[in-house]
Every structure is written in C-alpha cells, then in structure tokens.
Specification:
Layout lengths: L1 H24 L14 H18 L2 H9 L6 H15 L3 H16 L9
Helix pairs in contact: 2-3, 2-5, 4-5
C-alpha cells in the first residue's frame, strides 16, 4: 500500500512542479507571428472575422490589408473558398452571406492595398 501512496504523491508532485516550471520559469513565448502561420481551420476563422468587421465598417481597403497577411494573391477566391467550406460544414447563413459579400466586393476592384512585407 505504501508503494501506491508514494507513487500517487510523486505523480501529483511531478504534475504540480511541471506546471509551475512551464508557466513560471520557462513559458513558451511567441513573437512576431503572423496570420499566414495559422492552421487552416484558424485561417478560415480569421477570414470570417475580417468579413464580420467588413460588414460593420465597410472598409474594403482595410479588409484587403488584413486578408493579404495570409499570403494569398487571390483574396476574393480565398474568401469564396472559405464560404464554400462553411456552407458544407453547415455554418449559419448570416456568416456565409458576410463572406460572399466580401468576396464580391473584393472581386470588383483590381487594385487593393496589401500589407507591407
């Protein structure tokens, strides 16, 4: 019985010390990360957030700058691709409408600002 008690106490102490070390002594810090380093599902969420912002402020230039940070040349195509993926996944119609409105407005203009390299 003493072995199991010592094993349990050692495990608990190890978890507590490991968490303390990871959060206090040597935490992971991310610096200078950009949206183009996001995983695909988070990139799609980023595009949706840009579309939501665009639907409220109607600043197409700012939306183009934010989307250009994803490293894609065809911004309208990128937004349409996300809209199609969201349709297949059953996202609300309101989100898809915002994405399609942004894609249509992006497609209308040939010269849009982009983020500085």
């Amino acid at each position: 019985m003493n072995r199991f008690l010592l094993l349990g106490l050692g495990t608990i102490a190890g978890v507590i010390l490991g968490a303390w070390y990871g959060w206090s002594v040597s935490p992971i810090t991310y610096t200078e990360t950009s949206p183009d380093e996001l995983r695909p599902e988070f990139r799609a969420d980023y595009v949706l957030m840009v579309a939501e912002t665009y639907s409220s402020d109607r600043d197409l230039g700012q939306a183009a700058v934010k989307l250009s940070r994803l490293g894609q040349d065809d911004l309208a195509g990128l937004v349409r691709q996300v809209a199609q993926a969201y349709e297949a996944a059953g996202y609300p119609q309101e989100d898809r409408d915002r994405l399609n409105a942004l894609a249509n407005d992006l497609a209308r203009y040939s010269t849009l600002p982009s983020a500085a390299p």
